[in-house]
Design goal:
- The complex is a heterodimer of chains A (about 70) and B (about 400).
- Chain A has helices spanning about 25-30, 55-60, and strands spanning about 15, 35-40, 40-45, 65.
- By secondary structure, chain A is α+β, with helices and mostly antiparallel strands.
- Chain A has one domain: Alpha-Beta Plaits.
- Chain A is globular, with a radius of gyration of 11 Å.
- The mean pLDDT of chain A is about 90.
- Chain B folds into 3 domains: about 5-45 and about 95-170 and about 260-335, FAD/NAD(P)-binding domain (3-Layer(bba) Sandwich); about 65-90 and about 170-260, D-Amino Acid Oxidase, subunit A, domain 2 (D-Amino Acid Oxidase, Chain A, domain 2); about 340-389, no CATH class.
- Chain B contains 11 helices and 16 strands.
- Chain B starts with a strand and ends with a helix.
- Classes of the chains: A alpha+beta (about 70), B alpha/beta (about 400).
- The structure holds flavin-adenine dinucleotide and iron/sulfur cluster (2 copies).
- The site of flavin-adenine dinucleotide has 41 residues of chain B, from helix 1, strand 3, strand 7, strand 10 and strand 14.
Chain lengths: ~70, ~400
Amino acid sequence: MEYKQAKIGKLLIEIIPDRCDFCGCCVGVCPEDAIELKEAEIRIIAENCTNCSKCIWSCPIEVIKFNKEGILV
Amino acid sequence: MKNYYDIIVVGAGPAGSVAARYAARHGVSVLLLEKDRDVGYPVRCGEAVNKSRITEFIDPDEKWICAHINKFRFVAPNDKEVTLQFREEGYILERRIFDYQLAKLASEEGAEVVTRAYVNGLIIDEDCVRGVKALIRGEEIKIKSKIVIAADGVESRVGRWAGLKTHIDFRDMESCVQVTASNINNINPDTCYFYFGENVAPSGYFWIFPKGNHIANIGLGVSGIIGKKKSALKYFNQFMERRYPDAPFLTSIAGGVPCSVTLKKISSNGIIMTGDAARQVNPLTGGGISSGMIGGSIAGDIAGHSIKRNTTDYLSKYPELWHQQVGKKHEIYNRIKNGIYNFTDDKFNKIADSVLKLPDDKRTLRNVFTTALINQPSLLLDVAKVFIY
Ligand SMILES: Cc1cc2nc3c(=O)[nH]c(=O)nc-3n(C[C@H](O)[C@H](O)[C@H](O)COP(=O)(O)OP(=O)(O)OC[C@H]3O[C@@H](n4cnc5c(N)ncnc54)[C@H](O)[C@@H]3O)c2cc1C
Ligand code: SF4
Ligand code: SF4
């Protein structure tokens, strides 16, 4: 297992997929086009993410978390 | 489905469906792609519109009108209420049916509609957009076109792939939670309710829009700057515990409304953007159904014309026409929004008090804003500009 490389080294942003409502708010604010949202499927494109946290602040229902340890993928 | 269309529209919301229809009217081939299984569902919307702004695009039909609105009620943080007569007519829609109907109108004009069609890339050749890549029912497909209309809503990724800057400042994104609840018995079926205050919806508002039969859309939006400390969901739960602790929820959704001026650039070689994707929402109210339809009609019409004239240069007229018709007004609305954004509870209470002192016939939307902005003369001029009846 390894950390996916984001621009600063590792991905610290985590979406809890089971709780997501697929509303697109986070996608709209992401400056790096780092979130992909299909009909009922969401993922962070780790290579694009800069861990800026803007998606976390705009998620209406607290589905995105800042994970200090980084996420193993 | 073919492998070439003159125009491909991405997203079958109000903006995309109207764009497809106005394009198809020119007798060109149009494909409308929607990633969801159903057009019009899920509904992420309070569903309030001003009748006069939508009848140009669709004849009123009780099938998709849940309620007829003729009053607004504003509730200050101290629970003082100001009720205004709305001199026009408003509707609360059933968007499941409304959006569906708009897509049907596009198809009747000749547009081909495909659902479960997720657009995941653009075909770009010599700096010009020449089609889309899509995942359609499990199959990766390339479809060529002369023009792509990006009407992909709040996410607005399609424009990014063409190099347009579409992401919105998180402070301008209103993050929303809304339910459609039943057993809401203490509201008038002809009144839209708006609640303000630091504990209710700072930098936004809370709404209750009646849908008839004691059903209502109840929700709120707060800016990302608020969301940083406390989520929309927490504000929502707080309000419901206080006012409707036992109301059953028939649906509940999250959503985002981009409340800003229109994007600086909404067209590029072979692509134009419309609706929420282009940030064509009224930034003061967060209403984007009618403005998206206007944007879509201009975009579709221009795209159809361009194909007919065999020149995509004509696309560059689109931003200008949009700004003339609506965009300029949104700049004014945005200034007013910024002016009232940080009002304290005390300020809201005082506004309610002052408006309540006015005689009934003077209680107009314009006078409410004038009262609110009395200490900000520069914005008063803006209010005058937009509320001249
Ligand atoms: C909680 C809430 C309440 C609101 N209340 C009101 C209100 O009361 N009145 C009002 O006027 N406005 C309201 N709005 C705003 C209004 O809902 C939007 O402005 C309006 O829906 C915008 O229309 P649109 O066609 O631009 O986008 P949408 O209606 O969002 O449609 C975009 C479509 O594109 C599809 N799509 C996205 N990406 C892709 C892709 N890659 N491939 C294929 N398809 C794609 C989506 O599935 C969607 O169907 C509200 C919004 C929210 C979130
Ligand atoms: S942290 Fe920033 S870059 Fe990463 S997904 Fe969220 S908004 Fe995008
Ligand atoms: S903002 Fe939250 S609920 Fe909406 S799509 Fe993103 S993670 Fe899901």
